[in-house]
Amino acid sequence: MSTYMEKAGQVDRKWYVIDAAGKPLGRVAAQAAVLLRGKHKPTFTPHVDCGDHVIIINCKDAVLTGNKLQNKVWYRHTGWIGGLKAVKYNTLMAQRPEKAMELAVNGMIPNNTLGRAAMTRLRVYAESNHAHEAQKPEEFKL
Question: In CATH, what number is assigned to the domain containing residue 45?
Answer without folding.
Answer: 3.90.1180.10
